[in-house]
Give the backbone structure.
Amino acid sequence: MSAKKSRRDNISVPAVQPSAPAEHTQDIPVTPRPQQGCCGEGVFSRKDTLMVVLYSVLLLLAMTVQTGTVSMLLCGLALLSLLGKKPLFRFEQRLSVPVLGLLVFAIVYGAAAIYSPFGVSAKSEFYKFIAAFSLAVILLARFERKHVPGLLWGAASVSTVIALVSLDMSCGRVLFGPFNALMNALGTDYTSALQESAAARVNGLYNDANVTAALFSLALFVALYLLQNSTCVWRCLAASLLAGVNAVSLLLTGGRGALLCFAVSCIVWLIAERADRVGLFLLLLETAVTMIAAGVPASSMVTSGNETAVLVCLFSGLILFALDALAGRRLTVVLSAHKKAALAAMGALCAVTAALCAAVFLHTGPYTFEEDDSYIVYVLPDGITGDATITGDVDGDPQTVVYSQTLLNTYFGGRTDLYSGPFSQCAFTVPEDSAGLYVIIVGQAGETLRSMAVNGEKKIALSYPWLPEAISSRLLRDSLLKSNSFTLRLEFDKDAWKIFSTAPLFGRGLGSTENVTRSVQTFQYESKYAHNHLLQTMADTGLVGTVFALAFVLGSAWLCLRAVRKEKDSLAAALLAVWVMMNLHSLMEINFSVRGFKCFAYVLLILPVLLYAKPLLAGETAKARKRAKTVGILVVVLYALYLAVFGGLLERTRMTDRKAENFQTSDVYEYLDFLRGCVRGDVFDHDSYQRNYVATAVQMDDWKYNSDLLKYVKELRASGTYENDSALARYYYLPRQEWSELFDCSLEGIRQVRSSPDGWNLQMDFYREEVLPAMGADNVSAFVDGVLALGEALDAMNAEGRLETVEPNETNQSFLTLCRSVKEQGISGQDAYTILTMLAQSGEGEAEDAAQ
């Protein structure tokens, strides 16, 4: 079939036996692979083409324009897509576990956004979800099996655009300039994602190399499937370009976890592929060769900020096309006709590949500094204790720094310098609590480090010439199981489990890990998400949400497995590899918490439903068909209601926020009425309006507003957040002189941020500067008891075996000590008040002397 006559990819209908290779009439011969696959039914009209193109544009917008406006646009389009008879029929035919699981999970997730006490975070997360969910609904309602090839082309193309822009961000930024100008016009700015200086790793648009790597991995699988099952020479070329760009971009991210998961997923694909396993093996081998051939020079270019890296990335597609057309496809035909020879050849190629991989990691060489005062970091071998020296063969006598890290340092990034001076005199003593040793060598341009060893025995690898710089530098400076990223991930997972344990049924609501982590962590760190999507879902939505999320995700995998087993479907095998990559890597990364990845992943998770779903209520009798139709209608109605209700709530929230930004008045009663309306209008994040209402109404003391005042106080107090409880203590209990409630409320709030010294210090500052003058001499004993209760809570937390103790600043520590002294000596009344106020008026020394 010629490229001119074809309106769709030449992918045959699923069959039991592979079809014979078809004759190709293009000027450039491309031997077709034996084909299995989807979507041969029906005619792919111009309308279908337009639908696929428009959907691809929507996907690109959803992944790049990360605004609430685009989320609401997608929500509206999804709602419109459910109108008509065809969506009813499609949902009836696709009424399967993934479809039901997605619906119920969406309901739970929306509820979690509402009952979450962390409104700002919850609303942000829900915008991401509604965008991905809307894309999934549009697919279910308007697309059919025949559209899948086009959707695959669109998805791979979207990722390729992001890959080229991401790579350009690390180089000359020729593409990034106009791209970001367009994004600015649409409401998004990616300037903050730019790297301050040239680096080996490509972080990408999402400013996270690991998430970026996962995205490119998924697109690479899609592009390779398209290449494997294309016969038209132009489609082969296009698929090769898509695969080449995503493959090299994947390598340049330097994501070790992503590359490992990609390798595992490739093995799964080979196992699941039954129609053309030999051809797939050769294609994967060609891809590996292309990645290394183009990735190594491109990595060096990225490190130096050379824009040519983008051209090399594009050229990699031509390399892959040539390898596939001139070698891969021809070998596939030959080997497919001789099964024994094919097995022997595959075994030999596996052995050669394994040997080459081993050689890549075992082959080391000298390191040459490319610029003046440039440096390189090496991790020293394990087992070094006591006195040690570093010796080696190096040009000149470069500046050398040796430092150690304790277990706590690996989390915080701190270090203890053991030696700083010329390389020739490098000697140091290893501390007993050292968990890792590192050396920094600072050299001048052209100087070469040829060898280096510790105590003349333990040699250190200096460079991996056959690996891209992004991967080589990480292997040299990091010990995988002792690296900062690995140890922190373990802590993230542990703390996410602790959060889940506090509310196992429904979770703590969206934004839980960002806001609750400081209440359970054993040392202070900042992380918005658990680096494990399963634990993130458990913490946010509990067991209820997790069950239905798994029904959606595992249901999609089951459809692929069934198609592989019963139909030997090549696309099902490819989608199964995509599923493994997506979910395996998400057990160690924040992939599904990034909007771009979430949207892309949801599209791929829905494709098996379009291809292989069978109705759960299928039956031959009229009664069974009527029941299936009724349930199908009910599901469509529920999907539509969900989009209408939650989309409406989000839009009402946006309208409320816009009104609040422009509202002005000098009438306090009008202000209170407006705040009350805002509370009703924003179901996701109304705490700020409630706090302002309470702070204003408590001063008015008007019985007309007391009912809402008490209601808001109760709701804010029940949230248990530091922000709400601190506000109540300052603006409600302090003016009303309810001292006992003030201290109790303050203690409740501090639990949420108890790992943060700032939280404790701010509370102590509040006590010392505002509460003490307000309570006066008559209530000084109650004040001292409140301060001591705060101190006892701090001591109790530090006694829990934390890796890091929390200490107040010097002023607050002195004030706490002074309060304890006043209590121990039985000083009360005016004398105690005078002593405590002297801390601020006369300095710490005089106050402590007065307490003696």
